Amino acid sequence: MVVSAGAVVAAAGQWGPNGVLAVGTLAVAAIVWRFGRGLGVAAVVIVAGLCQVPGLLHAPITSTDAYRYVWDGRVQLAGHSPYAHVPLDDSLAQLRDPVLFPGLSPTQKSGVTGPPRVPTDPDALAKYSADDPRTRINRPLVPTIYPPVAQAYFTVVALFTPWSVGTLGLQIAAALLAIALTWLLAVQNPRWAALWGWSPIVALEAGNAAHVDVLAALLITAAVITAAKRPKLAAVFLGAAGSVKLLPLLLLPAFRTRRPIVALSTFIASYVPHILAVGTLVLGFLPGYLSQEGFDDGSSRSAILALLLPPEVRQIVAALLALTLAVLAFTRTRRDPLALTCCWLYGAALLIATPTYPWYGLPLIALAALAHRPEWLAVPIAAYLAYGSFGHDTRQGLIYLAAGVIVVSAITIRRRFVAESGLTAARSPANTGERDETHRPRDLGRAR
Predict the structure, then answer these.
(1) DSSP letter string over 87-134?
(2) Angle between helices 168-188 and 65-77 (to 10 degrees)
């Protein structure tokens, strides 16, 4: 195959920053593997804190989500619901400032009023979900998509953040959450905790981009760690994680003996105050997001399945795979450690859905560290490389497929190694009853 120089340059331009991120993640994993045996809890946590500092010195890079977080918190402090108003709504003009609205002052009219609309027509939906140069908030014509626990988090941070510092308050909060999760993992195993705390991905998405997925990762990890001794508390943590981002609810089958009803009750209870306040508007932009991702017409996004299947059957196959994984997780919970089950279940779900946004993989990094399964880092790394290839569906599918092959290969090699080690141990003299002639005590009487 002949590749032109222009194509190489174009690929480097798309993959450059994400390629550096991928190489950096692999380098951290290698360093931890080679030199991490003597690490202590304090050392891991301190270095994790230092890793967060550079991101705090720059505005969010990977997305503008943090500006929406700031707005949602500010709206709630003012006594309004981000589910019932869009950012450009003139009724909230008094909440505008030059950081979030550089092109629209509180005295200017946007022309947007009334309850939010989320149209179902693809063309109209694309128009409504487009950005506006007057504001840094993404999709300012649609309501928020973030669930209630995330909204509570935004509100608490907004309470302590001056308007003039923009996203810095959320960046600091996300960095502190990442450090707290590093400590939580380090108490279990400092060496593996470094896989999370020192990760360039975590540094980028916490201290810089302030993505709320860091909070979801912390709650998921707390749920897994507390599940054995305090199953009800673990279920509350899992339900709260689902109310930060919906994806953690996929782990419910793994918690089958650990109060999944409590988890669902926690999730539902978090919505009750908002339902009482705004009714069905509590769904926010979720219907629009699902429509844009193809879940309404059967052409759901799955970059790997898209390599082989037409859109009309892709969603069916994805649903069957997800159901199979759920059943497998439900049946294997008694045999495998919970952390391991959650790790492969979450990672496999990401490989099936291949979400557009790579920071969705943050909880998987924490679960990989907790389960001691570094091969699953291939999935979030692939997500960034695919993100750099946005618009090239086939290339994205191949990247994710390569990550899947890496994971399956690592699992196969590990199982063979364990099987061979077990067979060797079973054949050893200590287990077979045979006497080891090389270590048999000498018959001193016969020697004389």
Answers:
(1) TTBGGGGGG--TTT-TT--TTS--SB-SS----SSHHHHHHHTS--TT
(2) 110
- For 59-111, the pLDDT digits (tens) are 999 899 999 999 999 999 999 999 999 999 999 999 999 999 999 999 999 99
Q: What angle do CA 57, 61, 65 make, to 5 degrees?
A: 110
Residue 228: how many CB atoms within 10 A of its CB? 11
In a domain, residue 107? The reply is no
- Kindly state the tokens that stand for 360: 């969705």
pLDDT single digits (tens) 262-307:
999 999 999 999 999 999 999 999 999 888 876 665 556 789 999 9
Q: Establish if 128 belongs to a structural domain.
A: no
Q: Which helix (H) or strand (E) holds 419?
A: helix 393-427
Q: Would you state the torsion angle of the CA atoms of residues 442, 445, 447, 448, taken in this order, to the nearest 10 degrees?
A: 150
pLDDT recorded at residue 16: 54
Does position 136 have pLDDT exceeding 80, yes or no?
yes
Enclosing domain of residue 246: 11-84+143-423
Question: Is residue 394, in this structure, part of any structural domain at all?
Answer: yes
CB neighbours (10 Å) of residue 232?
A: 14
Nearest to 149 by CA among 259, 246, 68: 246
Neighbours of 102 (CB within 10 A): 13
- Structurally, the chain folds into a number of domains equal to 1
Instruction: Please determine, for residue 13, whether its predicted confidence score (pLDDT) is greater than 50.
Output: no
**CA-to-CA distance for 86 and 98, rounded, in angstroms?**
18
pLDDT given for residue 36 in this prediction: 66
Evaluate if pTM is beyond 0.85.
yes
Q: If you write DSSP's letter for every residue of 7-69 in order, what string do you get?
A: HHHHHHHHHHHHHHHHHHHHHHHHHHHHHGGG--HHHHHHHHHHHHHHHHTS---S-SHHHHH
Residues 6+ apart with CB under 8 A from 176: none
* Predicted pLDDT of residue 26: 76
Distance CA 324, CA 248 (A): 17
Task: State the pLDDT at residue 258.
Answer: 66
Establish if 342 belongs to a structural domain.
yes
Phi, psi of 77 (to 5 degrees): -65, -30
